[in-house]
């Protein structure tokens, strides 16, 4: 195997473009999964079964079907019903929705871990329900679940190459385009693989450090 450094240099413009798209999807998908996951978690605790059962059904369906299938459904099937998004938007929505069902369980565990005495103290102080959640329950829950949420961010990063299936110009798709144009496959794919390691491994160390500090 002959390594061609000129192929690496030629790939760099595409690499930076793909890295920017990957990070955009990661940030926006993470924000969506964290926000929607909290909505699902609150739905799990709703007093009415009319709310709880649909939330359980939707989250279980999304969590037990492959992300790639959901991605193709959003991109290829929804336009048949008159709902169409760009590839970038579809990929972000798919990743955010898929991982929101996992972050929902993390939120749920964190909320359940808050001691019952905290709820009782808030009730004794006659705090409004929204203030109880915002100032008493959620801050304590988030402190417990921050490392787990960080792990899902890393998992989302590793799933972004699936977006190449709908032609999102992230890192893998950029390497495929470069390889198709130059017939050089080893260098672009190796650079992409190394890039994921250089992003994911330090992030995992950061999550471990955060977990130790919070514990």
Could you give a quick summary of the protein structure above?
This protein has 8 helices and no strands.
Can you give keywords for this protein?
single chain; 215 residues; mainly alpha; 8 helices; membrane; transport
Notes on the protein architecture:
It is a single chain. With 215 residues, the protein is mainly alpha-helical. 81% of the residues lie in helices and 0% in strands. It is built from 8 helices and no strands. It has helices at residues 5-44, 49-63, 67-77, 87-113, 116-124, 129-159, 171-182, 186-214. It is flat, with a radius of gyration of 21 Å.
Rg over CA atoms, rounded to whole Å, is 21 Å
End-to-end CA span = 48 Å
The parts where pLDDT drops under 50 for at least 5 residues are none
Secondary-structure-derived class: mainly alpha
* Order of H and E elements: HHHHHHHH
Q: Major sheet: size, sense and barrel closure?
A: none
* Count of runs of 4 or more consecutive helical residues: 8
* Approximate strand percentage: under 5%
Question: Into which percent range does the helicity of residues fall?
Answer: over 70%
CA-based shape: flat
Number of strands: 0
Mean pLDDT across all amino acids: 90
Write the layout of secondary structure elements.
Layout: H1 5-44, H2 49-63, H3 67-77, H4 87-113, H5 116-124, H6 129-159, H7 171-182, H8 186-214
Helix pairs in contact: 1-4, 1-6, 1-7, 1-8, 2-4, 3-4, 4-6, 6-8
